[in-house]
Amino acid sequence: MEHRKLLVVVLLLATASAACSTTLRAKVLDAQTGQPVVGAVVVGVWTRTVGFVHHDHELVGVRETITDTRGRFVLERLRGSVLFGADNESVTVYRPGFLAWNNVLAFPSLSRRPQQRVPDTIVLQRFPPGQSHKEHVQFVDDAVLSWLYKVDKVPQLRKALREEATRP
Fold this sequence. Notes:
Helices cover about 20% and strands about 30% of the residues. The protein is of the alpha+beta class.
């Protein structure tokens, strides 16, 4: 539970949307083979910090896309008003059989990434034997801040997570 609380706090406080571009473009590669990862789900979640005393987080928007046959994706960024705080951006790339990548935190250590910019090339590691699928699914679910919106906003991710949740 401690890790989950830390994950939530770090994801919500991360301010990685400082990039000038309103569109994220990148390619996703398999770390083992260097080949494109086709059909990876990419989810962008944008929140805004609001409030003077209690810092709450308000959903600005959610976008989902899939990598193409070359492992490439284009994700339109959302930006919210910064009236009460900075915009927060969390981008997660996920495909069953691989460890999810998030621009803020790394799995399984939950260590904060030193550079939260989404790079031009994202390299996914194969899911290691002995790693917990249950913990991984929870990490992905937390990374995409799913409790802030209806799951119908990310149907491809829900489908992929159901697939992994059935694994031992």
